[in-house]
Amino acid sequence: MFILIVGCGRVGSSVARAMLREGHTVSALDEDPESHARLEVGLEKSWEDLGGQFTVGAGLEAEALEAAGIDQADVFIASTDGDNTNIIISQIAKRRYGVPNVIARVLDPLRAEWYARQGLQTVCPTRVAIDMLETAVRDSTARPAAGSEEAPESASGGEA
Amino acid sequence: MYIIVVGAGKVGWNLARELLEKDHEVTLIESDRRRYLTVEQELEHNVSYGDASELWVLERAGIQRADMVIAVTGDDEDNMLICQVAREKYLVDQIIARVNNPRNRQHFDLLGIKPSVSATDLILRLLEHEVPEYGLVHLLDLQEEQLEIIEMLLGKDSGVTGRRVGDLHMPEGSLLISVLRAGKGFVPNADTVLEEGDEVLAVLDPGKEDELKVLFGPGDGGAAGG
Question: Would you list which residues of chain B are within 8 Å, Cβ to Cβ, of chain A?
């Protein structure tokens, strides 16, 4: 599978490394040339030596998307730090380039939810955090009052 | 009309003021706190502080009853998203989006966000008109009809001067509609012979400009191009 990841921050670079390790063809696109270094965190060889591609450019630029190989992409991941950028470039990937699988990271739960209802696959880390926190709070309030013999659990609320 | 304007930069601020003077109800939304405070001194309760790409900010501004949303922030993604949400989620009848980078216009078109306005494009058009050497001048874009009307000045080296209109190989999807010569306009027929200094008007399908430029520009007038 050819996976194109736009936005090479902590999330994008981690997903890029994991997918490369799993044997996929991975191309990363980021405006910031420095983000190339983040791709190589923990790698024993250079990103390119391991078969990865890296392109400097903005996700809204057709030339950059094309240079990064969007025409061959089976999967498109929008993980820049801008919700609106991710939502817009995902729609471009889908409608203009016909990429079959498009996933957008959207931090704002309201936008993530509405665009998901319009048929865009969205991942909302904020929603995940809210759910985990709520669960953690419910779990701790459901537990017997202080002074019981149970060992306190970590507050991480599950290993999701 | 109730109009929501997003982005209190120079464009948004002046626009909001003009609309208020024309007795429209206006809410101007600005996400930069300092800018908001500046503008609020003049426009008072007509300005609202917040990021208009957050749906609750739009709802707080009363987008459900807005007749028009105008997105003029300095960020094309924001303008596209706000207009898309306004139209598709809140069913706002009219939207207008500002295009900051003309190269992004294709994305606005792809998402069906129109009309979109680009100051850079407008100035370029003006430049084309003021500087005829620039080649071909857009007079009118009929977006709905998918047609445009352009004007070309035939220079000394134009490949079509001295030729009969009937002998020109006009590209498919284009038509010569009039010739301005010595201050007078007329509709050419097949026997009209084009002269240096003629300004010709043509109607064409979008995307045909380059072919016309080749035909009417310097050289052999695309004689080989038939």
Answer: 53-56, 75-78, 80-81, 85, 88-89, 103-104, 106-107, 110-111
